[in-house]
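Fold this: Alpha-ketoglutarate-dependent dioxygenase FTO
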Amino acid sequence: MKPRQRKQYFRNMKRSDDSEREKRRKRWRLIQELGEQRIPYLSPADPGFQELWDSSYAGLALRQCSVLPDGLHERVQSALITLQRRGCLLRDLVRVRDRDVFTAVSRALVGQPGYTYRYLDTRLFAIPWHCEGEEGQKDENGKPCCDSDLRDACKAFWELNQFFCSDVRPQTNARGVKRSRSDTENSEDTPGEGMCEESVKDRLLEEKQEKEKKEEEEEDSSQGCSHSSPLSSTPPPNVGRLVQFNITLINYMDPTVMTQLKEEPYYGMGKMAVGWHHDENLVPLSPVAVYSYSCPAEPKNEGVTEKDGQGQSKDKEKETETEGEGTCKEELKEEREGLEKEEVQKEKACWRVGLKVAWDIHTPGLALPLQSGDCYYMTDDLNRTHQHCVLAGDMARFSSTHRVVQCCTRTLDYIQKRCSEALENLQTDPEKNTKSLKSLLPSTLQHTEDIHNEVEFEWLRQYWFQGRRYARFCSWWNKPMEQMEKDWKEMERMTQLLLDVVEDENTAQENRREMADVLLNALTDRQQHRQTWRDRCQSSLAQTLPAEEAPVDRPYWSNEDPDMPLPFDLSEIINRVESLLWRM
């Protein structure tokens, strides 16, 4: 059996595929059980909306635009527009069901320096935000990594992040302002969750989350996909601690250019800009905070706007007054129905967040309209037990979605430490100026080769697959990725040294076989993943991107490159090691 570190790495590589298969299985069962029916859902205009929110969606909290400090709206909205005008917001080429697709939403990641966020087999690298009182993040030459406009924009996101960190309070049963039909109900702040601090704690939390997910899936398999209420959950750890959101994913959605939006399939909620999903790779039970900003752009179609709706409503009120007491009950009923329809139309002109209990066809869904500048929190275990989608409005929309991402395997600091661990097994003879491996223990060799694969496929190729977009906006990642590539080249040298030992007839037979097994597994995985990344870089969709955004197949070299210890194509070496094992 392979060591734990190896299983953890490849578990991350395969998690997306396993998750997609499980989603398809559950979706198929749900559609079969549902038939041609539509599940009901409630909006603020519907009776029982507030009761449904309190009973089945208590982890959702709405904070109206008025709660933000003076001037913060203006700074954040200006920052969002700056990112759009500078071309920082780009559609990602992601992996879904073994094929590449473009996201409908344009995105950028901003956050703690050196942080990343991984979704759909894609790792985004954060543009660092700039904290108040600091000169700003610097590149390797001591110069600011971004220009002044981008620095100001990133500082605004940091300010918004600070507000969210203080506004999400660790009070388990507290909630923020909720917009009902009258838009006047108030309660307390929302519960929060402490950020992960140590990689060991993150690993334990991640394993616990996976165990809970498996238990949930086993329960679904045995009882069907219908749950009448959210699954029970344990209280969040460190509940008394202040939340520390460490990244924000900036999204931009314009319905006028999103021509292939799908209809929401279960409730009939309308067009979806983002389909049903859980937010992934977050610290278990940590909250998510979202800022929503609808642009003052022209609507895609001539639907009823809020202003038009108000005008029509006033006109109809005047008509009712002139009719006087002679108005019959039927006409009043039609009047009320017309006003209700207008209210529904106004709601659908707004962007909305839709929520549902995961894989449940009995609990009604919830559709919450978002006015420009509104914020909402998903707290407690809402992100685990429920799914959410984004329903398109008439205008373009930005969102800033603040999260507490796992920092055990998602940061530059983490991968740099992993590189150091691997290179500890390489030594240089100062007299002969030759290199050799310190230890030939199979466990040590396995650990080194696992890190080798992780650096190449989870970092270097992920970074270059997104083209040169990061260097265009910010130089912060340039030097770290150059150093990482140098470390990776040393690991290539270490693999070549291991190959020499394995092919040496003087090596002890028993140890030789174990080392050959380790080497063969590592080379086979490496060859397979290299081919996958080559195919992705050369796909038809990748070829449609402009040069500065097009995937770069890097690291890549010819098999005859004298600077590289091993060829890019490992098939011939794999055959040699397989033949060697066959003869043993």
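The domain at 411-583 is CATH 1.20.58.1470 (Methane Monooxygenase Hydroxylase; Chain G, domain 1). The longest helix spans residues 4-34.
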